[in-house]
Each structure stands twice: as structure tokens, then as C-alpha cells.
Amino acid sequence: xxxxxxxxxxxxxxxxxxxxxxxxxxxxxxxxxxxxxxxxxxxxxxxxxxxxxxxxxxxxxxxxxxxxxxxxxxxxxxxxxxxxxxxxxxxxxxxxxxxxxxxxxxxxxxxxxxxxxxxxxx
Length: 122
Description:
By secondary structure, the chain is an alpha+beta fold.
């Protein structure tokens, strides 16, 4: 096997092993998970539909940093703290030639992006 074939094979394997990219484009802006609700609204405008699904309890991890010489170690011991947050669903309809997107926010932070199929004319 030649060196070029080996490099191409390894590159293809790395691309296939990568997880799914949870992002989509709104105009010329990219929307990704861990964005705030206000950032998504700024990028995409108002959603077609918005509803509050319910509430959930999330654990809160407070990082502790330890400095050893030139190294910094950060760990999350998990003190058992939790908070109740509101779960909100946004649906964006980008028209009949583009996919609709369902966004789930927990406490104002985007945690899930789903494709729903092609949109419709309003």
C-alpha cells in the first residue's frame, strides 16, 4: 500500500469516526449547541412556534482548580447541587425547500437540535 493511499484511508476513517455535527445555518450565521436563547434569536429571528414543555432538574458542577508548578488541573467534584430549569421548544420553518429545525433549550441554553423534515409555505 502506498503512502498516499494510507493517508487517505486514515483521513476517511477519522471523518467517519467523528460524531454528528449538531449545528445549522441561519442566513450567514451558525447555530450550535450550548448557545443562549438570545444568541439564537439574534441569528435566526423569532421562531415559527415556541412553547414551554416543562421543567427539569440539572446538576450544577462547580470547578475546582489546583495549580501544580506550571500545570493547572480542573476537576468537577459534583457537590450534589441541583437546580430546576424551564425546558422550552422552538421550531423554525425555513420554507418548503429547507428543513425545519426543532430546538430544545434548558434554562435558556440550547441542548438539542433536530431536523423535522421539509418546511411549508406560510
